[in-house]
Amino acid sequence: MDKAHSSARRGFTLIETIVTVGLLAVLAAFVIPTVIQKGGAGDPVKVTNDLGSLRTALDNFANDTKAGYPGQIWDLTNKPTTTDKLVDNATVVTAGQIAVWNGPYVGATIGNAAADSMPTGYTASISNQLQRYDMVNNAGELSGGTGTFSTANTMFVAVKVTGLTATQAATVNKAIDGPSDPNVVGGPNAGANATGRFRFDPPNANNVVIAYYLASPITQ
Question: Which end of the chain has less neighbouring CB within 10 Å, N or C?
């Protein structure tokens, strides 16, 4: 066999293989952390954007139907029926209000049960169930907060977010309310956030919080 032909067919030498693997390892050491950091950086942005989209959708629903705010995110993505209730959990949507519904108001996929949810950043979830929230006493009508709910105070329609760690919630809070919005210090509610548009309950034993976004004020 021709010596030149034999030489052309030979594979990598051991030294060449070691050098190639080493170069790939060096590249991976630089590239992988960068990709992970960029992915992580997108999480608070996604949560913030999703909540902002829901706020716009809620306002559009209220403007079109003149009914106020729905009791579930489902009613933003699917035309409600006369069995669906508004956020006060008592008033039903009328046929006339359904006729002027002009959705879907948000591009989301979600079930129509109160316990259903849609994913958001940090692998957290946004709950289908909406509720009224007393911004003065920091208390939700159905759940959450550090005080006692009262309809005498300014109320907002609130979007519930589950699955955030305390650190992740603080990052989202900074994006929405700014770095000067403080958490509660000391007492049974230590670590909670009770002011601004994005609030959360004290962290549980696993350092996970339940958060609430006060999307839009409710006209009484």
Answer: N
Question: Is 1 part of any domain?
Answer: no
Calculate the dihedral angle through the C-alpha atoms of 203, 165, 125, 153, rounding to the nearest 10 degrees. 40
Non-local (6+) Cβ contacts of 28 within 8 A are: none
Give the number of other Cβ atoms within 10 Å of residue 58's Cβ.
Answer: 24
Q: How many domains does the chain have?
A: 1
Is residue 172 within 8 Å of residue 198, measured between CB atoms? yes
pTM: 0.82
Residues (pLDDT < 70) of the chain are 1-12, 14, 16-17, 19-41, 220
Contacts of 110 (CB under 8 A, 6+ apart): 73, 74, 77, 116, 117, 118, 128
Confidence (pLDDT) at 17: 66
Q: Domain range spanning residue 170? A: 44-217
Do 87 and 132 form a contact (C-beta atoms < 8 A)? yes
CB-side neighbour CA atoms (13 Å) of 111: 7
